[in-house]
Amino acid sequence: MKQASARRSIPSVDKVMRRLGSSPLPRPILVGVVRDELSKIRDSGGIVPDFDEIIDGVRRELNRLNRSRLQPVINGTGIVLHTNLGRAPLGSEAAAAVHAIALEYSNLELNLDEGTRGGRSDYLERCVAEICRSEGAAVVNNCAAALVLILRTLTLDRKEVIISRGELVQIGGGFRVPEILESSGATLREVGTTNLTTTEDYRRAIGERTGLILKVHRSNFFMDGFVGAPTTRDLAELASSHGLPFVEDLGSGAILSGTDDRDACAGEPTAAQIIGDGADLVCFSGDKLFGAAQAGLIAGRVDLIHRLKNDPLFRAFRCGKMVIAALQSVTEGYLSGTGPAVDLIPTHRMLKQTRDQLHERARSLVDRIKSAGFTKVTVADGASRVGGGSVPKASIPTQTIDLELSQTRLGSFARLLRESTPPLIGYIDEGRFRIDLRTVFPAQDEWLPDLIIRALESVGAIGGRHSTKAEETDHGPSL
Ligand SMILES: *Cc1c(COP(=O)(O)O)cnc(C)c1O
Q1: Contact assessment for residue 419 and residue 475, using Cβ atoms and an 8 Å cutoff
Q2: How close is the Cα of 143 to the center of ligand 1, in Å?
């Protein structure tokens, strides 16, 4: 009896929809959220909340959903290739190339000379091979796919892949080298120890079942002390003396060797160096140091490339035209000379910024925040990182904007900035909220103080000159 009356007071979907008014989310999504919320109330069997409370609950859920839409954010973490923030941003030239190909038809698989079917990425492959100074190249969806394809194709008859125990690592979320290897049907032949593997270890493991030798670039951590591993050259020689292919997974895909302004990447092997040292195949990501789009680039011996491209999996792993457009633009940029290439690729521009340049920007931003009445904000020294599983050792001196807030305010301040439009992501360190300017595009400096000031007002760290405005804007769209 009691429950029946409770049930009766659950409002109809229509009634809730009418109250919500317009929303940036598509109507079917809206209706779905309302239905879910109402059935949660029904299923709980408890007291039905009053109508306003129900509306608040629905709005919270809609805001959460709205924030989960793919959207631009400001990266104040100082991690240049931040996996959670989409790794490498694309340069405007490359983005324009994508735009042009996306909007119109293209010769994706048409040979314009013959009027017949053409290869999907022949020209791009030629450019990639040129950059890597290799005989041939191929492109697939990402570096993980490249690795699976390589292993599968090269271990069809002889299943064993020899790899050092020091390289059986996890690279970022969901990428464990041993699991990737096994998913390709290969069997692992682990050699050496975590910290030390010798050429002799590899040599002893070679047998009838050996398909290839693999070296994986240890990209997201670094070991110091009593460590050692054979060089690319050693392994390439060993493999070739046994008629085996030697493959190196480079991961980050440095193209420019680390000199002057790219000290952060100094010592990062470039694909061309590794090919020059005798690797039969290399693979690397398109959206790490390479600075293009998500893709796996493969370069090396033309006979092996040919085998990869004839594997049915290659069709499943191939790139779309927009990715090819981005890769083509960035690759041509590299080939047109290192100077302009560096400037066209945002990742390299960011890595190149000097502490002095960043200091200037930081000072003027701090002044603007101070003028809103918040004084505990300073320019500080910090350390940026390359990230994305690249150059784990490198820490780049940088300038941060540090805001000192009480422990209780820090968390909500960070959350408010994440929920602002656009979201601003910084980090908390020793009781301060820090924004590293290296990864903030200079054009975004214009927005930054306002976002910060509004969040400071919302947590009550400054009295609100614009506090009513903050109420409206800090919680996503008004629904
Ligand atoms: C990042 C990385 C990968 C995975 O690359 P995706 O393009 O994300 O698939 C593979 N190997 C190494 C060494 C890496 O650093």
Answers
A1: yes
A2: 5
- Angle at 251 (CA atoms; ends 246, 257), nearest 5 degrees: 90
Q: Contact, 440 vs 75, CB < 8 A? A: yes
Residue ranges of E strands in 257-387: 281-285, 296-300, 377-387
Listed range (72-76, 146-150, 464-468) with the worst mean pLDDT = 464-468
- Cβ of 171 below 6 Å from ligand 1: yes
219 close to ligand 1 (CB < 6 Angstrom): yes
Tens digit of pLDDT for each residue in 204-260? 999 999 999 999 987 666 677 778 899 999 999 999 999 999 999 998 888 876 544
Q: Give per-residue pLDDT as tens, 106-124.
A: 999 999 999 999 999 999 9
Å from CA of 144 to ligand 1 middle:
6
- Sorted by sequence, the CB contacts under 8 Å of residue 388 that are 6+ apart come out as 79, 80, 81, 82, 83, 87, 88, 172, 252, 285, 287, 288
Could you identify the residue written with the tokens 């309302």? 34
pLDDT of residue 2: 46
Name the one residue in this structure whose structure tokens are 């060993």.
238
The answer to whether the beta carbons of residues 109 and 251 sit under 8 Å apart is no
Is the pTM higher than 0.70? The answer reads: yes
Distance CA 399, CA 366 (A): 12
Task: Give the Å distance between the CA of 154 and the centre of ligand 1.
Answer: 19
SS3 299: strand
- d(CA 203, CA 293) in angstroms, rounded, equals 38
251 touches ligand 1 (CB under 6 Å): yes
- Looking from the CA of residue 250, the nearest atom of ligand 1 is 13
Q: Give the type of residue at 201.
A: D
- Asked whether 458 lines ligand 1 (CB < 6 A), one says no
Which among 215, 255, 205 is positioned nearest to 236, based on CA atoms? Answer: 215
CA of residue 159 to ligand 1 center, whole Å: 22
Shortest-distance atom of ligand 1 to CA 147:
10
Q: Is 145 helix (H, G, I), strand (E, B) or coil?
A: helix
User: pLDDT tens, 297-351?
Assistant: 999 999 999 999 999 999 999 999 999 999 999 999 999 875 566 678 999 999 9
Can you tell me which atom of ligand 1 is nearest the CA of 87?
8
